[in-house]
């Protein structure tokens, strides 16, 4: 069906007798679910938020500039929010003003509520993303400071699932513009997609650290945009060459369809171990990249070979995170040339290891191999393996760097990278 609510010319307005061109104003038009009134050049139109939306506090207003050269610019709905998120914003205010505090019972309820609200939302406003991201950051930070049976996951079988589904909703491809708007309007006002990823990785590391102590089962979860695997490597076998993770076809992922069963990590079948002396004690942040640490860790004295204890492999696979993280790139390796129009053309995979009660950091004895299924095969060339360098305390943006990784194989649909340390990786290509 055709609609008679717009004209071909951006300066023409629908009237009862057809389209009429205006020479000093932008025409009445429908955009983002709002009818914008005829507005003179250089003026700002201001109307109530779309039907069903509210202001974060009080009545919400959407604005749009009528530009003399371009006509209508894109509407600004920054002050609009969905009703369910206004209720969540009250919870957020309580936490940020220290009027309320999280505990296990409240954490369980909040994770459940975040999953319910994001699960029933088809269209997000920037404020919806901000409120959800900040609540999720509070929740993940709270859990990352717990230990043993203080972890909510030991009290609630659905807790990890609820957290991951809410995180997945925030990392859907269509939230990209909303994250960008938040970064411009309220720098530091939300953790940003990179901050959210860091919180998720720290929480996954907390679960791994407490797995032995709490008898928590290994985790295998699939959500629309994130897959999480926290798995044991219990029986090192010198005879087997490598092991593949995540183990998509094992009971760990039973009843869940992986959206990309081809992207995986290959690890030596013997427990991964650092090249001495770079093991990191459990008190430090698990996923912290060695480049973000201001001081090198003190040398660790060589240990006698212990009994083969459990090693834990932590993997997060993000379907479209490459399009949401800041597009900052650096070659930083001799012979590595960045593509002219770089785009992330693979899922993003985060790998960490926990061995002998230490998180692995720095250069490993045996490198990690990562096999990626490429997102797009047409009009893509010049693959380069890259690692995400998270922002330091004084920096606003992290960046992708070609350091510590090399491309070892690529065909029309897959690429294989070999990386010398744990971290967060992807395949950059020329568009």
From TrEMBL:
Recorded superkingdom: Eukaryota
Residue stretches making up the G-protein coupled receptors family 2 profile domain: 6-84
Gene3D superfamilies referenced in this protein's UniProt entry, alphabetically: 2.60.220.50, GPCR, family 2, extracellular hormone receptor domain
Keyword terms of this UniProt record: Disulfide bond, Membrane, Receptor, Transmembrane, Transmembrane helix
Low complexity biased stretches: 278-295
GO molecular function per UniProt: G protein-coupled receptor activity
One Pfam family matching this protein: HRM
Occurrences of domain GAIN-B (ranges): 270-431
InterPro entries recorded: AGRL2-4_GAIN_subdom_A, GAIN_B, GAIN_dom_sf, GPCR_2_extracell_dom_sf, GPCR_2_extracellular_dom, GPS
Keyword Iron-sulfur appears in the UniProt entry: no
Cellular component, GO, one term: membrane
GO BP terms in the entry: cell-cell adhesion
Region (Disordered): 262-306
Location within or outside the cell: Membrane
Main location: membrane
Name of the molecule in the record: Cadherin EGF LAG seven-pass G-type receptor 3
Organism: Neovison vison
Native organism taxonomy: Eukaryota, Metazoa, Chordata, Craniata, Vertebrata
């Amino acid at each position: 069906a055709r609609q008679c609510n717009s004209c071909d010319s951006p300066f023409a307005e629908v009237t009862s007798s057809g389209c009429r061109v205006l020479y000093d104003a932008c025409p009445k038009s429908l955009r983002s679910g709002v009818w914008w009134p005829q507005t003179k050049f250089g003026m700002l139109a201001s109307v109530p938020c779309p039907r069903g939306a509210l202001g974060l506090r009080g009545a919400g207003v959407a604005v749009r500039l009528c530009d003399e050269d371009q006509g209508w610019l894109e509407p600004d709905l920054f002050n609009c929010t969905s009703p369910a998120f206004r209720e969540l914003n009250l919870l957020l205010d309580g936490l940020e003003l220290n009027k309320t505090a999280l505990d296990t019972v409240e954490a369980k309820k909040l994770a459940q509520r975040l999953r319910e609200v994001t699960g029933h939302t088809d269209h997000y406003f920037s404020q919806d993303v901000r409120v959800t991201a900040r609540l999720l950051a509070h929740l993940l930070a709270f859990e990352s400071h717990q230990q043993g049976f203080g972890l909510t996951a030991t009290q609630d079988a659905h807790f990890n699932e609820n957290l991951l589904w809410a995180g997945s909703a925030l990392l859907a491809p269509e939230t990209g513009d909303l994250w960008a708007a938040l970064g411009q309007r309220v720098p530091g006002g939300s953790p940003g997609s990179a901050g959210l990823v860091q919180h998720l990785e720290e929480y996954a590391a907390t679960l791994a650290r407490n797995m032995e102590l709490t008898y928590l089962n290994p985790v295998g979860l699939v959500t629309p945009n994130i897959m999480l695997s926290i798995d044991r490597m219990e029986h090192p076998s010198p005879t087997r060459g490598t092991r593949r993770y995540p183990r998509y076809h094992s009971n760990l992922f039973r009843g869940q369809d992986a959206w990309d069963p081809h992207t995986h990590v290959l690890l030596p079948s013997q427990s991964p171990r650092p090249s001495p002396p770079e093991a990191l004690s459990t008190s430090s942040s698990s996923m912290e990249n060695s480049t973000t640490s201001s001081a090198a860790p003190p040398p660790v004295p060589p240990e006698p070979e212990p009994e083969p204890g459990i090693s834990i492999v932590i993997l997060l696979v993000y379907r479209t995170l490459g399009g949401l993280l800041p597009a900052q790139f650096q070659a930083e390796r001799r012979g590595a040339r960045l593509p002219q129009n770089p785009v992330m053309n693979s899922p993003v995979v985060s790998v960490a290891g926990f061995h002998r009660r230490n998180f692995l950091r720095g250069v490993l004895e045996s490198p990690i191999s990562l096999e990626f299924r490429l997102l797009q095969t047409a009009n893509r060339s010049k693959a380069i393996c890259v690692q995400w360098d998270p922002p330091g305390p004084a920096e606003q943006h992290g960046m992708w760097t070609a350091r510590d990784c090399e491309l070892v194989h690529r065909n029309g649909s897959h690429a294989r990278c070999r990386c010398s340390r744990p971290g967060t990786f992807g395949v950059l290509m020329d568009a």
